[in-house]
Task: inverse folding
């Protein structure tokens, strides 16, 4: 009986937690907080406490992966980064830091933020210009408006 | 016209001395202020020592030599870009402040000079002698491309001067 109750409680807790994490509306408001998880130490400078623009340049598919962090505790923000990003890569990577910023910085540059919930709270920033110089300029703007947070719970994987 | 004479080894030696049309200026006072400022900036952070740049480049080779080094499908470091970046570093005047060096998702190497969040200039070095650049100078912004031939393009040097001149 005790075992059943424990299992039931664990399942219920997981369900509630998942529902809470997934409780965001589909539209992203310009004031909403977003983060970009940084898995390479060359994308930020701890001494200057700044994010380098390269962290905000999209890959070839021109989709910049970000997460919505509205109403999440600091611990949960890091947990998503570890569980849903760093540990999902094969082989897993170290989550070094994250770059928090407000959606409006991207929206005001003509970009769109499309939530896809794969994984939970995930979104892509799309609408990047074809020309690299213009993408670089936008990346500089995003970096200039981002706040660097170093991961205090670094997962043990080394890259 | 006012003429200013600046002693090369004097107290106003600037990393951007070579950018200036020596001795020709609206006011010698303005020039002096500019040189003083750049000299002050660079005395703190200028350690443009080739060996340090090359050490950084080698470090990037180690950490970014395979695809997906950033966890977001970045391309491995482009070795032609690495060669060009080495050539760029060698051509960089020794007096220019040491940049942050990084790899971008397309595998190109970038040099980034940072003073403040909105005073930053970044260049990427492609494999085909093309330098892509962008900069924020307060409310002003710039971006573009330049051909990297035998020497560093004037546009790049001009923007570095702009970054460190105010």
Result:
């Amino acid at each position: 009986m005790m075992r059943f109750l424990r299992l039931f409680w664990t399942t219920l807790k997981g369900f509630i937690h998942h529902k809470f994490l997934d409780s965001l509306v589909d539209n992203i408001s310009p004031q909403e907080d977003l983060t970009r998880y940084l898995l390479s130490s060359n994308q930020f400078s701890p001494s200057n406490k700044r994010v380098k623009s390269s962290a905000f340049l999209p890959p070839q598919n021109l989709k910049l992966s970000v997460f919505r962090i509205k109403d999440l505790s600091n611990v949960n923000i890091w947990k998503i980064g570890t569980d849903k990003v760093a540990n999902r890569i094969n082989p897993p990577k170290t989550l070094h830091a994250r770059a928090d910023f407000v959606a409006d910085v991207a929206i005001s540059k003509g970009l769109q933020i499309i939530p896809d919930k794969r994984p939970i709270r995930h979104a892509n920033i799309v609408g990047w210009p074809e020309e690299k110089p213009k993408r670089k300029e936008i990346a500089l703007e995003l970096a200039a408006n981002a706040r660097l947070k170093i991961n205090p719970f670094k997962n043990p994987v080394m890259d | 016209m006012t003429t200013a004479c600046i002693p090369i080894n004097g107290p106003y030696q600037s990393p951007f001395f070579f950018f200036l049309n020596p001795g020709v200026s609206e006011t010698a006072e303005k020039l002096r202020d500019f040189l003083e400022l750049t000299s002050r900036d660079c005395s703190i952070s200028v350690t443009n020592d080739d060996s340090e740049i090359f050490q950084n480049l080698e470090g990037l080779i180690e950490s970014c030599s395979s695809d997906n080094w950033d966890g977001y499908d970045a391309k491995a470091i482009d070795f032609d870009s690495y060669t060009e970046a080495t050539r760029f570093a060698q051509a960089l005047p020794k007096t220019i402040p040491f940049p942050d060096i990084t790899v971008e998702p397309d595998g190109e190497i970038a040099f980034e000079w940072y003073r403040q969040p909105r005073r930053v200039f970044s260049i990427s070095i492609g494999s085909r002698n093309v330098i892509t650049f962008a900069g924020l100078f307060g409310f002003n912004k710039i971006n573009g491309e330049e051909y990297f031939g035998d020497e560093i393009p004037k546009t790049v040097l001009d923007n570095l001067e702009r970054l460190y001149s105010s």
Remarks:
- Chain B has a mean pLDDT of 78.
- The first strand of chain B starts at residue 2 and ends at 3.
